[in-house]
Write a structure and sequence with these properties.
Strand content: 5-15%
CATH topology of the largest domain: Rossmann fold
Structural class: alpha/beta
Number of helices: 7
CATH class of the largest domain: Alpha Beta
Radius of gyration: 24 Å
Order of helices and strands: HHHEHEEHHEEH
Largest sheet: 5 strands, mixed
CATH superfamily of the largest domain: von Willebrand factor, type A domain
Helix content: 55-70%
Distance between the termini: 27 Å
Number of strands: 5
CATH architecture of the largest domain: 3-Layer(aba) Sandwich
Strand order of the largest sheet: 3-2-1-4-5
Amino acid sequence: MRQRRSSEQTSIYEVFSDMALLMLATFIFLFAIMLMVSHLYGSGESEKTKEQVAQLEKDLASSQARNIELMTEMNRLVGSDTKKQMEKVLSSAGLGKGQGRKDFELMVQGLRAIPGHDLHLVVDATGSMHGMSMFLIPILRVISIRSGKHISAITWYADNRMGTYSGSMGAMFDKLMQNAPFIGSEETIGHTFDALGATKDIPSAYMLIGDEPSTDTVHYHRIAAPVFTLPLGNSDESTKVQFQKIANISGGKMLQLKFR
């Protein structure tokens, strides 16, 4: 059973989540004050009431100004932290400089060129991907951020099984890390795309990530959206041939990225 990351290694997505909660709490607080102000205006015209209203309005303006100040500072800090973490992840996968960095930037450019805004990641979770899983998921986080696309869902597949997750980016990647088996030997890509095509949530494009070709039948012409494929590692020629075929027939493109 894989160990969870330590509490000290705070995900940038947990920071974003904390920011969202802060914004929600602040909004509720300000909304409550406005309701109180409105109630006091309608409850009487005494001098004391007017003084209370004036003080509440002053507190409200002060709270709004402080909230803007805090959010500006947090955005600055989180932006800086995000960049540092992305650079660290890329360096650990051999993509921080040289040809590896050039390959990564070219792949990101390819993703940015994908039509539409939504991208559904489809990830091989069989045993052959086990060795890559620990650095693949951080790399996928970086790819998601740099591409500028909205990751609408993430699906893993292995041995005719699959799991699909939606929600915030951090939550989806955490569920993938916790629940994807990364064992088994059947790359059931055909079954996965058949199942995804039967749903109502069709994205602008899929991104298929794996290191081996499908072991079942792929109904190329039934795939519901363009597939941009990314063969990983030392994928053999049969993987590249099939991934290229899936991309070509579905209207997508095969991307290249080699971890060094």
